Amino acid sequence: MSAQQDLHLVLKYNNATFNIDTIKEHQQIIKQHGKVIWGIIKPTPDSPGVGKDKFQKIKDQVRNRIETYAFFVMNSTYKAVGKIADLLTKEEVRDQKHLVPAYYRDDTLDRCVAGVVIESIEPLENEKQVKEALIRYGTQDGEVALNNQTNPLYVSMKYPLTFHKVITDIPDESIRSIVGATQKYIASKGFYYTGRLIENFYLSLRTKPFVILAGISGTGKTKLVKLFAEALGATEENGQYTLIPVRPDWSDPSDLLGYVDLQGTFRPGPLTKVIQRALQPENRDKPYFVCLDEMNLARVEHYFSDLLSVMESRRWDDEQSGTITTTELDLGHHSQADPSHDRLYIPDNLYIIGTVNMDETTHPFSKKVLDRANTIELNEVNLAESLSFYHQTAEDEVAEEGPTTRYGNPFLRADYLILQDAFSSETASLIRRVVEKLDGINQILAQAHLQIGFRVRDEILFYMLYNDRFQLMPEQEALDFQIMQKILPRIQGSSMNIKRILVELFNRLGNTNLSEQDHGLYDEMKLRVEANPPYRRSLSKLAEMVRRFEEDGFTSFWMA
Q: Residue 386 — very low, low, confident or very high, per pLDDT cuts 50/70/90?
């Protein structure tokens, strides 16, 4: 079937009718349920509905997986485009009225003659292109009369149009340029992040879909998650980015996953709703991002431990297609009340990022949490350097960019779950070098029973192997990030043994010969760090931890 024979809809609306943002109201329902019903309302009893032949044609197109669109028009201007998932009769609309926006769910639904099920609504990037491509259905070049009273209008395309095509074929050679484009997008929004933060964030997500962003308030942790997701085409509007603020009174998984009410009905939590959307067959190639904002306002082990355990059950579902599955989530005794929530698991297109502040209002992390995440610290604040960034972008007249491409889940999905997946003759040398370094570090950590296990070793190796494949940063710099994120957060205490471990780690990484008994130890360490040696980030953190020990008699990775 050619593009000219396919049937699409033009749906007109007017925000002034109900004094609301019509598109936004429908996008909110998509965000909650993964789809929305756009009701076709008869303005008068004599107004025509949807012709049976056209109704059936659109249903057949959708059934045959032909992409079918709805173009949303206000004041004779194309505003947005949506992908049609189905057409419903007026009786079917009433049966699914929870998918109808509340502003006309009750008062106006009686005049609804049909419903268009929309699975995504996004702003049009090029209205002129759409105007030139659309023609009246059944004609060769008939102009679409947007100003007449008919609603909906039936249209076809002179030539195929694609809207936010999701790119899933992503070779290794393209990863570096995509990460660079992501940095450029974030900069265009006026946000400045130092060093190789974006590369590190990407590698951490690729290694494991659970990352913690830690640091003082106001460093842009939450904004980083949102903008990174946006750069890949995942937004709040299309339901692929969700912010979940954590409350201090959360005490068990039901706050995230849901609960059974007194009537026996399961009420899905915010994370369960995202998981349901991500598991829809049409969404399996799209990444979904969840930002748990201020994650440690409540005790993470209380409300998140079950999810951590399920994450650790990741295994290959189909090695040929590269899909990953987990054990099922325990949502409580709700299945009899609502079987639609059965058999949920954490899909491989779901990425959970927690933001945390470490101060007197928050809770510390246990080793169980730290072992299972890359903990990226955003405490490096250089006010003068960031100011020069804004001067430079002003001079260069950097335009605000929008995400012009939607990258599919293969951009982030893990290729390695166990070390055997990564081991080959090409990777053996890198693996050996990294493990030798980790063995030396482990011997030092063992003095206080802080040594890392096989899980942490493997995840560090995965990170290093991805970095080597995609050539994002030098090997030593990548290992520096991993020591900072996977090893140093484990160290805390008030015994002299802890200070000795910090100094020995500094000596091993910095190739120095300092002693914990040295006078002016911190000053000497600081001088070495200022010389910009290899493993500078880890050395700087070790020096700060020694300084805190000398001043307070106690130290930890977290500088509260």
A: low
